[in-house]
Specification:
mainly alpha, 0% strand
Length: 129
C-alpha cells in the first residue's frame, strides 16, 4: 500500500488522492460489499480544518492550496503510470516518502535509494519533464 501523501495536511482530498493512487498507479482492485457489511462514523462537529476548506467562512487560499496539491498529485500519478508502462519492473517499487529526492530529482518512484539504476533514473527524469 502506498504511503499517504504528507503534503495534504488539515482537511481535504488526502484519502481521495491515496485511493486514486492505489487504483491508478498500483492497480488495486476495490469491491463493493453489497450485503452484510457497512461502515459508520459517529456524528460529530465539523473540524476547524474542514471549516477552513469547505465551511461558509472558508479560506480561499486554503481551497486553492488543496486544489493545487490535488492537481500536482494527479500529474505525478500520470508520470508514475507512464514510467511503469515503459519499465514494468518499477511497478513493484514502493513510492519514495519524499516528494522528490535531491540526489536524483525523480518524483516519488523509489528515487535513488538503490532501487533504480542510473539508466532507469535518466528515463524517469525524461518522463517527468
Amino acid at each position: 500500500v502506498p504511503q499517504y501523501d504528507a503534503r495534504f495536511r488539515g482537511y481535504g482530498l488526502n484519502k481521495v488522492v491515496h485511493l486514486l493512487r492505489m487504483a491508478t498507479v498500483f492497480n488495486f482492485k476495490f469491491k463493493v460489499a453489497t450485503t452484510g457489511h457497512f461502515v459508520a462514523a459517529m456524528e460529530h462537529e465539523a473540524s476547524v480544518d474542514y471549516l477552513k476548506t469547505y465551511g461558509p467562512a472558508r479560506d480561499p487560499l486554503q481551497v486553492a492550496r488543496i486544489q493545487a496539491l490535488f492537481d500536482m498529485a494527479r500529474e505525478e500519478m500520470d508520470v508514475e503510470i507512464a514510467m511503469t508502462a515503459h519499465m514494468p519492473e518499477l511497478s513493484m517499487i514502493t513510492s519514495c516518502p519524499n516528494l522528490s529526492h535531491p540526489a536524483c530529482g525523480v518524483l516519488r518512484i523509489g528515487c535513488c535509494h538503490g532501487s533504480i539504476s542510473g539508466a532507469e533514473r535518466a528515463v524517469a527524469q525524461e518522463a517527468s519533464r
